[in-house]
């Protein structure tokens, strides 16, 4: 019982020391990175070439990365980031990737004959465009699909196919 009290007291003291050092030596983040990160859609789809939205925001602010790589964000996001960072960006130079504008991009569909309902595609979809319950057939909500094709990599039965779709 004495050993338990000693370890409990030591754990409490170490917790206080760790809390104090975490408070005293806080990691300072660049506020511009935080602002750009909040503007990004947080879909973590990696279509920009980075592992997620935060690394892409870091690259934009620190490495002068192009601001037109976020497919789910589209041209509206480009204009918002350009406004926040005071970048002159004319609308003629924008890469229109927004579904609301006329554009052609890939979307996926599920061959329901081969779908076994494993839910792996829905689990990995960064924008929740795949609907279905475990052990039931799944389907893709094409309106929300960004064409990142992450679900294709995780499908064990290869029932997810890529098709081209035009949105207006």
Automatic annotation (TrEMBL):
Keyword Protein biosynthesis: no
PROSITE patterns cross-referenced by the UniProt entry: 4FE4S, 4FE4S_FER_1, 4FE4S_FER_2
Domain of life: Bacteria
A GO biological process held by the record: electron transport chain
Keywords, sorted A to Z: 4Fe-4S, Cell inner membrane, Cell membrane, Electron transport, Iron, Iron-sulfur, Membrane, Metal-binding, Repeat, Translocase, Transport
Cofactor(s) essential for the protein: [4Fe-4S] cluster
GO cellular component: plasma membrane
Pfam families: Fer4_21, FeS
Residues reported in the UniProt entry to bind [4Fe-4S] cluster 3: 125, 145, 148, 151
Main location: membrane
EC nos: 7.-.-.-
Region of interest called Hydrophobic, as start-end residue ranges on this chain: 1-22
Gene3D superfamilies per the UniProt record, alphabetical: 3.30.70.20, Electron transport complex subunit B, putative Fe-S cluster (1.10.15.40)
Binding, [4Fe-4S] cluster 1: 45, 48, 53, 70
Binding locations of [4Fe-4S] cluster 2: 115, 118, 121, 155
Subcellular location: Cell inner membrane
Record's keyword annotation contains ATP-binding: no
A single MF term (Gene Ontology): metal ion binding
Cofactor binding note: Binds 3 [4Fe-4S] clusters.
4Fe-4S ferredoxin-type domain span: 106-135, 136-165
Top-tier EC class: translocase
PANTHER family: ION-TRANSLOCATING OXIDOREDUCTASE COMPLEX SUBUNIT B (PTHR43560:SF1)
Role this protein plays: Part of a membrane-bound complex that couples electron transfer with translocation of ions across the membrane.
Family to which this protein belongs: Belongs to the 4Fe4S bacterial-type ferredoxin family. RnfB subfamily.
Assembly and interaction partners: The complex is composed of six subunits: RnfA, RnfB, RnfC, RnfD, RnfE and RnfG.
Descriptive protein name: Ion-translocating oxidoreductase complex subunit B
Biological classification of the source: Bacteria, Pseudomonadati, Pseudomonadota, Gammaproteobacteria, Enterobacterales
């Amino acid at each position: 019982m004495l050993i338990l009290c000693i370890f409990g007291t030591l754990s409490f003291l170490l917790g206080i020391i760790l809390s104090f050092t975490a408070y005293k030596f806080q990691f300072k983040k660049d506020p511009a990175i935080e602002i750009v990160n909040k503007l990004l859609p947080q879909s973590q789809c990696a279509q920009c070439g980075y592992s997620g939205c935060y690394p892409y925001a870091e690259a934009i602010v620190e490495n002068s990365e192009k601001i037109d790589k976020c497919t789910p964000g589209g041209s509206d996001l480009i204009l918002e980031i350009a406004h926040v960072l005071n970048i002159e960006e004319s609308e003629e130079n924008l890469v229109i990737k927004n579904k609301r504008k006329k554009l052609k991009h890939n979307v996926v569909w599920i061959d329901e004959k081969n779908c076994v309902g494993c839910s792996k595609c829905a689990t990995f979809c960064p924008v929740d465009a795949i609907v279905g319950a475990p052990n039931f057939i799944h389907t893709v909500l094409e309106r929300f699909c960004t064409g990142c094709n992450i679900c294709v990599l995780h499908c064990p039965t290869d029932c997810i196919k890529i098709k081209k779709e035009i949105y207006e």
